[in-house]
Amino acid sequence: MSEYVFKETQRFKQIWIWAVLVGVTAISLWELFFIESSKPTESWGKALPLVILFLVFALLLNLKLKIRIDSESLKFSFYPIIRERKYQFEDIDSMELIEYNGLLEYGGWGIKWNLNSWSYTTGGRHGILVKTGNKKFLLGTHKPEEAKKALEQFASFKSQSYGS
Asked: Can you tell me where the transmembrane regions are (predicted)?
């Protein structure tokens, strides 16, 4: 079997997320610049939410989930929060493509914990569920058909490793 390399890079592209952020920012800007405050110190108190909103903007613009599966390992990162993590196939018990509901099963998208496993997603309904000896986590994917090829390669590796 020839080596197949699965690569995927995801970002938060949902229009509703950006619409909410732009709306809240617009309201905050309106409040800060167009509503007169009786005390000068109140302006600083109104500016704090705006600073927080700009930090959220910066974070969402930079958040990037990168997944790579080659013939011997799985690598992923959720920059800038999680640096690259690498798992050799020997250390992975199972990987399977699943369909899930991010909102119901994990309480949303991003980096989530549901008392059973971690979830690293940017949206969508498909994910790669990975189980190791002591960890279980879900990596969201927008390319389920391509991911399936990589998981077949993983299954082939496991069958050769346990068959010999």
From this structure: 15-35, 47-65
